[in-house]
Amino acid sequence: MKTKDYSVLVVCSMRRAGRDFFAGILDSASSMSNWYLSTVRPGRFFGCGELVDEDGRPFDGVIISMPGTDDVMERIAKSHTPTVLVNITDQRLSARTDAISSVWIDNADVGRRGARHLLERGEYKSAGYVHELNYQFYSTERMMAFRDTMKRCGLETTTFPDDYPASAKAPYAKPPAAFHLPSSDYMDRLRNWVRKLPKPAAVMATSDMRAADVINACRAENIPVPSQVAVIGVDNDLTQHEKCGMSISSVVLDMRRMGQQATRELDFLFNHPRWKGRIHEALIPARDVFTGESTSRSLSATRLVKMALEFIYSNRTRNITPSDVVAHLGCSRQLAYLRFSQAGNTTIRHEIEKARMEEAQKRIQSGERVNDIVRSMQFTSANQVYRIYKRHFGRTIRQVDA
């Protein structure tokens, strides 16, 4: 029996997260040899004329991750073409009940992850959440989960702005038309807000763009980040780091998995052409959290060095590097090096070498062969052991044996 061919239109941006989303589609579609993919940019580039393929035939299915013109969205809403919506909030499309599915970011998971990350980094007197400039349902959903997680740990959350809609309804609900944050005094109001937060404070922003705003507001008020205000955003948008002068900790969305799920949803619609009923919705949790300088642990030199030495000693039989130690501490490389210098004029590399050589010396004195030590302690060669041993102890292993 001949397999039916399907022409599929994918509407997405190829900027940043859009590339990961499309890569996810390619991942899943690679096993579907009967699919023929076409892409188009969103916005004004996606109009009614793009609903037909290069042969002039209507597409068999559509995956939409960003909206197009008003006319094309109206046309799709009235059609019966199998359609997958990805974070699309158009009320007209959400009213469809046949051949349609939706894939959403799990914004509650995003908010919880942001809160948990901050709570793992230190102790705070207050918590804050910064919304998007204009009303966005996802900002409210993330805030609600963030606030609930912080409340369970005894922290009340102050929001900015405080007149942002307090609850999230269905994503496709019409946003409050009256709400709009004036851009002219935005930074002045944000500076006033961060100034009034009891310190130290834990702040989550709905995006890395807003997180950069918070960090810049703190800098303008001479409030150190992260020791007095720890900040986390969403999106892992590296372009925002330059705007605030530091790497921003961020909840990383799983856009690749979003693309994979969108492909599976469309495949289901193709295989169930008569399926009708409540719109099928899939929630995709965040992928992980990127730890940047904006939430680095604010620890004393003594405490940080103690944590580092404990890690080094526990891993003295492994070929660890200073980068491994810094990653364990969860702070910037510069801060770790500074704290070691303050605590005793030493370095992380020296302490790693010291711990490993002391362990090697114990083994040598107990009669263990150098070649066995090389293998069990992950040295690159016996010559490396001999060289480091002499540098560290000022004598050779053979002199010890003698």
Give a written overview of the molecule.
The protein has 402 residues and is of the alpha/beta class. It folds into three domains: 6-105 and 255-286, Response regulator (Rossmann fold, 3-Layer(aba) Sandwich), CATH 3.40.50.2300; 107-253 and 290-295, 3-Layer(aba) Sandwich (Rossmann fold), CATH 3.40.50.2300; 301-401, Homeodomain-like (Arc Repressor Mutant, subunit A), CATH 1.10.10.60. Helices cover 44% and strands 14% of the residues. A six-stranded parallel beta sheet has the order 2-1-3-4-5-11, with helices on one face. Strand 3 (61-64), helix 2 and strand 4 form a beta-alpha-beta unit. It is flat, with a radius of gyration of 28 Å. The protein starts with 5 loop residues before the first strand and ends with a helix.
Chain-wise SSE layout:
Layout: E1 6-11, H1 17-29, E2 35-40, E3 61-64, H2 70-78, E4 83-86, H3 91-94, E5 100-105, H4 107-121, E6 126-130, H5 137-152, E7 157-160, H6 186-196, E8 201-205, H7 208-220, E9 229-234, H8 241-244, E10 249-252, H9 255-271, E11 280-284, E12 288-290, H10 301-314, H11 322-329, H12 333-344, H13 348-365, H14 370-376, H15 382-393, H16 397-401
Parallel strand pairs: 1-2, 1-3, 3-4, 4-5, 5-11, 6-7, 6-8, 8-9, 9-10
Antiparallel strand pairs: 10-12
Number of domains: 3
Write the element-wise H/E pattern from the N-terminal end onward: EHEEHEHEHEHEHEHEHEHEEHHHHHHH
Mean pLDDT figure: 88
Instruction: Sum up the overall morphology in one term.
Output: flat
Q: Strand order, biggest sheet?
A: 2-1-3-4-5-11
Strand content: 5-15%
Highest-level CATH class of the largest domain: Alpha Beta
